[in-house]
Amino acid sequence: MQGKFVILLLALLAVCILGGCTMFFLDQGPGSGRRVRMEVTAYCPCGKCCSWTLDKNGRPVISAGKSKGKPKAVGITASGKRAHPGTIAADTRYYPMGTVLYVPGYGYGVVEDRGGDIKGRHRLDLYYNTHNEARQWGRRRVDVTIFPPGTAPIPQNARPPSL
Predict the structure, then answer these.
(1) pLDDT tens by residue, 61-90
(2) 139 — phi, psi (to 5°)?
(3) Is the pLDDT of residue 142 over 50?
(4) 3-state SS class at 24
(5) How far is CA 15 from the centre of its chain?
(6) Is the predicted pLDDT of residue 25 greater than 80, yes or no?
(7) How far is the C-alpha of 70 from the C-alpha of 62, rounded, in Å?
(8) Mind spelling out the 3-state secondary structure of 93-140?
(9) Which residues pair with residue 39 across a beta bridge?
């Protein structure tokens, strides 16, 4: 009987140690996340930001890269959703679609897109409705809060997280 208890205790300890990061990360309560210093740029649906142009028939097509000349669904993200303020493009190897983030100066957003130049865990691209708004953001290095998988989307005008 005591041997089974020791095995159970060791198994529980192994789960706590191996899964501890996730367990303690999720156990911090709502609104908690981890901060990562990132280089953050902005984009809009224009051809300049999203590498598209009109073909001879007036239809949008990709203007550069290996898909040059193929049809482009303007304003539609890689997740298939229409881009809107709060849409974030990230490297989905590190931040899967649906990851909730808080970017100071922008607000809360959800990873719903990926960009050709958005590579690595320290790069994001924020969606704005107009090219002027995207240019006003420019390129900034900020401490982004990344929430654990499964966090429900948070309204963009919600208060900043308290860590």
Answers:
(1) 888 888 888 888 888 888 989 999 999 999
(2) -130, 125
(3) yes
(4) helix
(5) 29
(6) no
(7) 6
(8) CCCCCCCEEEECCCEEEEEEECCCCCCCCCEEEEECCCHHHHHHHCEE
(9) 123, 141
Q: How much of the chain exceeds pLDDT 90, in percent?
A: 44
Q: How far apart are CA 92 and CA 33, in angstroms?
A: 18
Q: 100, 153 in Cβ contact below 8 A? A: yes
For domain 33-49+77-146, the CATH class is: mainly beta
Show the tokens assigned to 76.
């539609």
* Integer CA distances (angstroms), 79 to 75, 95, 110, 111, in order: 11, 13, 11, 9
pLDDT of residue 22: 39
User: Is residue 121 predicted with pLDDT exceeding 80?
Assistant: yes
pTM confidence score: 0.73
Report the alpha-carbon distance of residue 63 to residue 47 in Å, rounded.
8
Residues 142 and 55: their CA atoms lie apart, in Å, by 38
**Measuring CA to CA, how many Å separate 10 from each of 18, 70, 76?**
12, 57, 50
**Residue ranges of the domains in the chain?**
1-30, 33-49+77-146
Q: Which two tokens stand for residue 89?
A: 């493009």
Task: Name the pLDDT band for 5 (thresholds 50, 70, 90).
Answer: low
Secondary structure of residue 82 in the 3-state scheme? strand
